[in-house]
Amino acid sequence: MIKHLLITTLSLSLLSTAISEEKSAADSASETIALFDGKTLKGWKNPFDYGDATVVDGEIHLLSDKKFFLVTEESFDDFEVTVDIHLPEGQANSGVMFRANVEPNKVFGYQAECDGSDRCWSGGLYDEGRRGWVWPSKEGRTKEKKFLAYEKESQAHFAKPEVKGALKRNGWNTYKITCIGNHIKIEVNGVVTTDLKDDTDASGPIGIQHHGEDGQTYRFRNISIKKL
Q: Is the pLDDT reported for residue 21 higher than 60?
C-alpha cells in the first residue's frame, strides 16, 4: 500500500510538473513583445525612396510630403497588436497596417483607419491600395460589391456616439487590432469599432502611415504585439 501511494504521489508530481511546463510554454508563446524599443528603429524599414522616420523622446516621428509607410521587418499571422497614435493638427489621416503586403515603394492591404476628418471613421477597416472601404462600406468608396450589402448597417454603427467619438482628435489614441484566422477586430481607446471576418490576407508585417501632408509630423509610441 505504501509503495502504491509513493508511486501515485510521484506520478501526480510528474504530471503537475508537465502541466506547469506546458503552461509556462504557453505563457511564453503569448508574451507581449515590444516592436519599438523607444530608442531606435531596429526591426523597422522604409520600403519607399522618400519619407523620414526618426525617434524623438520615445516616439517614432514620420515626416513626408507624400504618403508612405514604415513597416516591421518581421511578418505576423495571429496576434494582438497595440499602437498609440497622435495625429497632427489640420488635415490629417493615418492608420495601422497589419498583415500588410510590402513591395518597393508600395504597401497595400489591411489598415485600421485613423481618421482626423469630421467623417469620424476611425477604427474602420480600409483595404489600402486594393478594395477600398470594407467596414464601413459606402457606394463610390467601396470597390467590392459584396461589402455594400451591409452599407446601411455599417454606416449606422459608425453613427453611434461611442464609435463616432472614439478618437481623441488632438490627443493620443490607443489602437488594438486582434487577428485570429479570418477574424479581425479593431478597437480605438477601448471601443470596438470593427468586428468581422475576411480571408484575403493571413500574414504580413505591421506598418504605420504618414498620409503625405507636407510639414506635418505623425507620432507613434508604445507599439507592441502579442502572438496568439
A: no
